[in-house]
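Dear H.,

Thanks for agreeing to be a second pair of eyes. The structure we're designing against is below in token form, covering all 332 positions.
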């Protein structure tokens, strides 16, 4: 049996680590790229240490991209490397454009020059939709981003389509709605809620201050979404897909689930903070996953309550000094 090789950028982050675990279970050779091998080695989820290969790659260096593809000869390439923020989607627009946009064009060009049989999957974002009035959003929804982050992701998506149509590359964009896990960074509101619920339960904190509790999100489990991306590269033809839960929940509901898991009433501990208040989007951002269901046979397996419980339990284990088998504190 021929062993497939997959190259994953951003392997030490939330999505990269879950995908690496999935691919290892499928008996792939897994190679991860990072700007700092030593740091990435330390940040890897425990179960990946010694099982994946790590190589240095600055995403802005196109020549290095070509060298790596020629060296590794992967059959599949998944791009998770990006400037990713909980709330800083307007911070440093130039860097966001370089890393989230132009770097993807460099990868596609490296594939075109090196080996056009490589299958490529780009981690896109619901932020490409931004101010769109249509809800729910599908692959056909017009993209009208409202932030540099969304605009850069849209540029990357556009380049994926151009290289697919003009050069015939097997290139896909996965339009990912919010996806969480115990490995989510602490700058994201979901992880902040889970962490503080655990800290309060353990007597390490007394309150949690949040912004708009009525803000709604389409939240799913990161492990489900990387499975969808893998399925995208197993198809006969390349295409783009929305991956989402197809339902929304408020920050208030997330708090209720998280604190309820540890036997507490969130209303006794959660305070709204005007300084952190962010208004809700003008259009409800919720994914229409009909295409992924029909074409890929994909749908989420983990519901919102199971997801929240998983996150809180992982933080309880970590904070109490017990080894956690659920996750690690890596951000994308």
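And this is the sequence the design step returned. I haven't edited it by hand at all.
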């Amino acid at each position: 049996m021929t062993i497939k090789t997959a190259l994953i950028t951003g392997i030490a982050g939330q999505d990269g680590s879950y995908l690496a675990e999935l691919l290892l279970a499928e008996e792939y050779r897994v190679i991860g790229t990072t700007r700092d091998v030593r740091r990435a080695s330390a940040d890897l989820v425990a179960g990946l240490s010694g099982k994946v290969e790590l190589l240095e790659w600055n995403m802005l260096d196109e020549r290095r991209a070509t060298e790596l593809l020629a060296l590794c000869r992967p059959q599949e390439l998944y791009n998770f490397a990006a400037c990713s923020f909980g709330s800083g989607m307007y911070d440093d627009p130039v860097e966001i454009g370089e890393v989230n946009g132009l770097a993807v064009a460099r990868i596609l060009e490296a594939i075109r020059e090196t080996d056009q049989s490589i299958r490529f999957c780009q981690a896109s974002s619901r932020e490409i939709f931004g101010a769109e009035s249509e809800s729910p959003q599908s692959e056909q929804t017009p993209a009208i981003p409202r932030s540099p982050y969304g605009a850069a992701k849209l540029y990357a998506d556009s380049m994926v389509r151009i290289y697919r149509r003009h050069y015939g590359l097997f290139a896909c964009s996965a339009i990912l709605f919010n996806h969480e896990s115990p490995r989510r960074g602490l700058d994201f509101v979901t992880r902040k809620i889970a962490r503080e619920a655990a800290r309060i339960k353990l007597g390490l904190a007394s309150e949690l201050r949040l912004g708009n509790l009525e803000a709604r999100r389409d939240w799913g489990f990161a492990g489900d979404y990387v499975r969808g991306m893998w399925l995208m590269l197993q198809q006969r033809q390349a295409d783009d897909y929305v991956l989402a839960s197809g339902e929304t929940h408020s920050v208030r509901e997330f708090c209720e689930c998280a604190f309820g898991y540890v036997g507490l009433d969130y209303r006794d501990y959660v305070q709204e903070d005007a300084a952190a208040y962010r208004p809700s989007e003008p259009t409800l951002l919720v994914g229409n996953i009909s295409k992924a269901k029909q074409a890929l046979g994909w749908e989420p397996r983990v519901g919102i309550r199971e997801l929240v419980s998983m996150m809180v339990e992982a933080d309880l284990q970590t904070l109490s000094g017990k080894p956690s088998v659920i996750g690690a504190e890596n951000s994308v």
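Two observations from my side: The domain at 184-218+247-285+295-319 is CATH 3.90.25.10 (UDP-galactose 4-epimerase; domain 1). The chain has two domains: 5-179+219-243, 184-218+247-285+295-319.

Warmly,
E.
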